[in-house]
Amino acid sequence: MRQAHEQGVKVKIYYTVRELSNYCAELFPLRSLGTEVFTDGPGGGHSWLCEHLVSGYAPAWHQPYPDGSVDAAIATTGLSRWHNYYLEGLAWLLRHAQIDGLYLDGIGYDREIMKRVRKVMERERPGCLIDFHSGNNFHPQYGLSNCANQYLEHFPYVDSLWFGEGFDYNESPDYWLVEISGLPFGLFGEMLQDNGNPWRGMVYGMTARYYAGADPKHLWRLWDEFGIQDAEMRGYWDPQCPVRTGRDDVLATVYQRRGRTLVALAGWAPQPARVRLDVDWRALGLDPQRATCYAPGVQGFQPEALFAPADEIPVEPGRGWLLVLSEEQHELAAAADPHAGLRLLLEERFAAETLGPEWTTHLSPQPGTRLTSGHEGLRVDARANVSAFAQRPLPPGTSLVECHIYSGTDQGASWGPGLRVMWPQGHLRINLRAEGRYGADDRTAQVFGGKVEPRRWHQVRVRLTPGQVLAEASSDGRTWETIHTLPRTRLPGDPVAVRIGKETPDGSGGDYETLGPPGTCRITDLRAYGP
Fold first, then answer.
1. pLDDT, tens digit, for every residue of 448-474?
2. Which H or E element spans position 267?
3. End-to-end Cα, the chain, rounded Å
């Protein structure tokens, strides 16, 4: 905690009730109180619970540890004298550990306890934050009530929301506004399930959290460069919003500063759309004759672009733009040709009926897994989450490797079809994921970005520069997005091999325990270039 504070970082901790570890020293005295502290239940769970508690309890979180021991919790009741102990523990943590707030994964107490939690925090350490997370509780066992309804009584006392597992980010704008964003209740939110939709999220002031493959730092950098903390947000739902699209399925929210405005544009239309912005220039304090509409390049989100204020702006399904309206003049740098100065070292169209001797293949033992080459390129038939790939050496001096991938009916996400370039020190892979995103992994982390249209050819490449290794993708061969970058020091020297097909993120060649449905994808036009 002290080290974090020295770096100017605040720390919230996971501290709650709802269940209690079997390591708790007070376990048996609390059991003697009957069902005041612990809920009644059928028993069961871990063997320690069965042996020592026998019955009359409800098993909860089960956490095994590397040494073989197990933390086997049991469920607590929603209101009891145990909450007094919880509150005293919170006061001690604030006073002595100097925590900066709480992360609540669900709320295991009522509004009265929450009021006491907030009072303790304000008394002991003013400025503390409560970050509230919940999954989608719109299920019969929760009474078909979403968590915005279920926990509404607590919202005055929390500072932010993280909703959450099971939320559908393909739902309507009304669903986003009321059930995800927190804005109607004076709260801001972040996205979780599959890392959300970054374009729609920005319409509500949201990004994904830096978690489980989500990498919003490039959007955060744009926030800082624009100065979003000094802007006034006006959403599409506000009658005074000074930017309109004229459509109900492409929406605009503005973040207005003096002299410049950031417009978050996002589409819900099922087909590609084109919109012309209807701008109240007087409200923005801008001269329409001098104004520009500039899209700064944001990795994994959008390429750099420049529009005239009266231009039609293309909006792909489920995507959008961040546009800066100002009187600043911008010139787009000519797009550099990454092939310039390079010569073709390797080309493989997979047109022959068999792969050449330089290729080795790896196939999952699952029935129906096969690689075949022919007039339609390299065809991969496999279950969604199994490995099936081909590998060959790369020529010395390779600095760019690319191919075309058609996801077809393949349902793999981490196991989706992709291109992996390999060094002695590590790997970098880029692939197409079934949920409609590109993925990239380097054996230590997975990141996601862009938009993958189903049943459409996409181009992917791994490209070396003097300082970086880039994983890039394009749906049309003209506009490329950078999905992931690594410093060249992580992958020094020449790459030695290329691998194409379906495989694990870490490159080990295994299968996932849930195999998924069978599907087919194709890969063609593999090329390697170098100086």
1. 887 888 888 999 999 999 999 999 999
2. strand 260-267
3. 50
For the chain, the domains span: 2-217, 224-326, 343-530
Q: At what angle do helices 82-92 and 111-124 cross, to 10 degrees?
A: 20
Q: Any idea what DSSP says for residue 96?
A: I
Rounded distance, CA 291 to CA 330, Å?
11
Give every CB contact of residue 396 below 8 A, 6+ residues apart in sequence.
494, 530
Contacts 24+ apart (CB under 8 A), 214-218: 214/447, 214/448, 215/300, 215/447, 215/448, 215/449, 218/298, 218/299, 218/300, 218/301
Inter-residue contact 22 to 71 (CB < 8 Å): yes
Distance of CA 454 to the CA centre of its chain: 19
CATH assignment, 343-530: 2.60.120.200
Residues 6+ apart with CB under 8 A from 372: 378, 379, 381
Compute the average pLDDT of residues 346-356. 94
Residues 350, 377 contacting (CB under 8 angstroms): yes
Q: Give the tens place of pLDDT for each residue, 252-274.
A: 999 999 999 999 999 999 999 99
Exposed, middle or buried by CB within 10 Å (0-12, 13-18, 19+), for 42?
exposed
401: its two tokens: 């490797």
- pLDDT score of 456: 87
pTM above 0.90, yes or no: no
Top-confidence residue, 211 or 314: 314
**Is 224-326 a CATH 3.40.1000.10 domain?**
no
CA distance 393 to 526: 13
Q: Tokens 């097909």 sit at which residue? A: 501
